[in-house]
Amino acid sequence: MFHILEKRIAEAISARIQSLYAIEAPVQIEQPKQSSFGELALPAAFQLARQLKKAPKAIAAEIDAAGGAIEGVASMEIAGNGYLNVRLDRGAYGAGVVANAGAVSREVATKIIVEHTNINPNKAAHIGHLRNAVLGDTFVRMLRATGENVEVQNYIDNTGVQVADVVVGFQHLERKSIEEVRSMIHDPAARFDYVCWDVYARMSQYYDEHKDALEWRHATLHSIEAGHGIEAEMAHLVADAIVDAHIATMWRLNIAYDVLPRESEILHLQFWATAFEQLKQRKAIYFEIEGKNKGCWVMPGSAFREGSIEGDDDSKVIVRSNGTVTYVGKDIAYQLWKFGLLGKDFYYRKWHTYPNGHDVWASTDEPQTGAPQFGKGTRVYNVIDTRQSYLQDVVVAGLRALDYNTQADNSIHFNYEMVALSPRTCIEMGIELTEEDKRLPYVQVAGRKGIGVKADDLLDKLIEKALEEVTSRHKEEPEESRRRAATQIAIGALRYFMLKFTRNSVIAFDFAEALSFEGETGPYVQYSAVRARNILRKLAERGETLPDFQAWLQIPTPIGVAPKGTGEGAYPAPYPTDYPAPYPPAYPEAYNIMGRQLAHEDCWQLLLSASKAGSAIERAIASGEPAHLARYAFQLAQSYSNFYHEFPVLSETDLEKKAFLLWMTKYFIEQLEKTLSVLGIEVPEYM
RNA sequence: GCGCUCGUAGCUCAGUCUGGAUAGAGCGCUUCCCUCCGAAGGAAGAGGUCCCGCGUUCGAAUCGCGGCGAGCGCACCA
């Protein structure tokens, strides 16, 4: 509804400017600084002031005087130094919202790929990984909410150094046999991902003290690459088990995947060999015959770095002098596959079925039947830490060098800053800090040192605290039900916490802050939905039913776009004049009632805010900031709090008013729940 | 050294892309509000050199240049 008005007003004002000054200008629409200024602000006069050499205020006055009424607009006024502030016609707007005007659905044929999570399968997930997964998952939900077809990929580096190091740790430090590792995996109490966390940290420390131990790593990597030997077997065992652990952890947060492309198949199916041929043929890379990169295939720095001169100083090695490919090389091949440009595909096997019936598939090198089609996207978002910007630039440069410019343009590094730990939280966790560290704003997470907060631990802690809070308020409810509510609250708190910061802000993770359920938090937003639902529940308990407000307003069903303009049809003018309209409304009864009820500021602000859910999602996609949608949810909840305190709905004696307040409550719930579901947050039954 | 990002209230952050109205929110602090649709809430208040300087502009937190301070990158690791 809101975007219809925006468009209509922009067009009308644009036409006025055209006829007044013969200037073709796109009209910008802003939100006024204060709600008392109206609903829309047009800074058009400022832009024209320069061209016309006239005071903005005078121009605004001319534009204001230039035309007749705009449908849906109650008044316009000149404010500040030349703003045109627009007040909407509340009756018309309200009637339009009830009639569900402007609802659109669309079908798309193209596919968007979002790659996120991508955790090394060698230890438990930590809070840094959570930021990645929550950002990625929320962005996926945002895209899907607007009708996009989205495929979620989680890349598994199951053959890399990090997995190898855990294998080395099990063999040489822990002296564990394959059978012992297997039995740990099968014993849920052993918490295999936690075991690996410690083994990895210990092994990293051991390398620091015994450089010759690196031989073990090399031997293990060699075995993994060759695909046989006890090391390779254990590597697969470890990686597969940890992938399962990550899937389980993320599922706790309502995060699921469609496909797991694995590095092992990229190797075995020779993805790189195919990409290598393409890169050589197109001369995107060349064989270096001198300098420090002698004997390597390199991509010149000029390909991916602005202002770089040809020379080997900042060129990037793609194939090492020993003939093995670097990570970036493999990533170029993978990116080509995502766009369907490699001319090769994986085979797939079903990896896991989620409790809701959704399947996640994994790549395999053996032919299988019955798998869906993956890859072949038209746009690709890679949710990756901003520290890898340089490498992502190289990947995109690879596409460009192969003349895949459209795909290069559609390769988006959805970057974000890291999650660190606040010094206070480090101390709480028993991590030793120097005096210098204590004065820093944050301390970096380091998997090699075992410094970090495990995702499952954090979630458990949140659930425990939420359960205390829930129990203190609902002793009468059964344990299972309280635990369910506590879990939903914990997830709401965690997801909101990860989303409230914009992407390029470093999060200094702090337990006290993350465990807070007050103020700008997920639980605050959930609470407003719970309170609204309570009203409807109490209504039913009293034996009353929710009035059919649409029928009350004499708006015909089925829901459709309101007829514009003349109000022809079943509701002839003249309409009652207690809420005068500047033009004949589509639904006179609705127009009157809504106009009357929405005269209350808190009602109007809530309706307006709630009606913007759709455009909030679109704006957040446009800006690439899930944080903006989180903020919208919070503001909508705040708006409801004002409404809630102002209007005791159930005790209202005026029937029209009560019907309106109940409808308002229901509409708010619908819009907030829609927004929360895009944020991946559920609303508990009670809290 | 080069590149990227950041510097806004005591703290944590929005706002900067696209310049415009008295610079916002949450936390913390000070005072209030439960005969209840559960206060995980609400009302009110104190709190700002938008890092500094110069420039562009009718107008700069926002754009440009130069400083200062902080972080992150710049492997034949991933």
Keywords for this entry:
alpha/beta, 687 residues, globular, 16 strands, 3-stranded antiparallel sheet, 10% strand, 4-stranded parallel sheet, RNA-binding
Query: Spatial order of the strands in the main sheet?
Result: 5-4-12-13
Helix content range: 40-55%
Shape: globular
Number of strands: 16
- How many alpha or pi helices? 27
Strand content: 5-15%
Q: Structural class of the helices, strands and pairings?
A: alpha/beta
- C-alpha-based Rg, rounded: 30 Å
Q: Poorly predicted ranges (pLDDT <50, ≥5 residues)?
A: 557-579
The major pleated sheet works out as: 4 strands, parallel
How many angstroms does the end-to-end distance come to? 33 Å
Mean pLDDT: 89
Oligomer: single chain
Summarize the structure.
The chain is α/β, with parallel strands linked by helices. It has 27 helices and 16 strands. The protein has a 4-stranded parallel sheet, with helices on both faces. It has a 3-stranded antiparallel sheet with strand order 1-3-2.
What does this structure look like?
With 687 residues, this protein is an alpha/beta fold. The chain is built from 27 helices and 16 strands. A four-stranded parallel beta sheet has the order 5-4-12-13, with helices on both faces. It has a three-stranded antiparallel beta sheet with strand order 1-3-2. β4, α5 and β5 (149-153) form a beta-alpha-beta unit. α6 crosses α10 (230-252) and α24 (601-611) packs parallel to α27 (655-678). The longest helix is centred in the C-terminal third of the chain and has 24 residues, at 655-678. The chain starts with a helix and ends in a 9-residue tail after the last helix. Residues 557-579 have low confidence and may be disordered.
